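Kindly draft a polypeptide, keeping tokens residue-aligned:

***
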Amino acid sequence: MDPDPRWRRLGWFVGIWAASVAALAVVAYGLRALLHP
């Protein structure tokens, strides 16, 4: 009983988007910490 491929594709899209947003937040926090100690 595999899920609908559309749902799997949407899940991958949401997962990659969330990971990219999290990575951007980490980079932004790191730059902020370096520039304003």
Remarks:
- The two ends are 53 Å apart (CA to CA).
- The helical segments are 5-35.
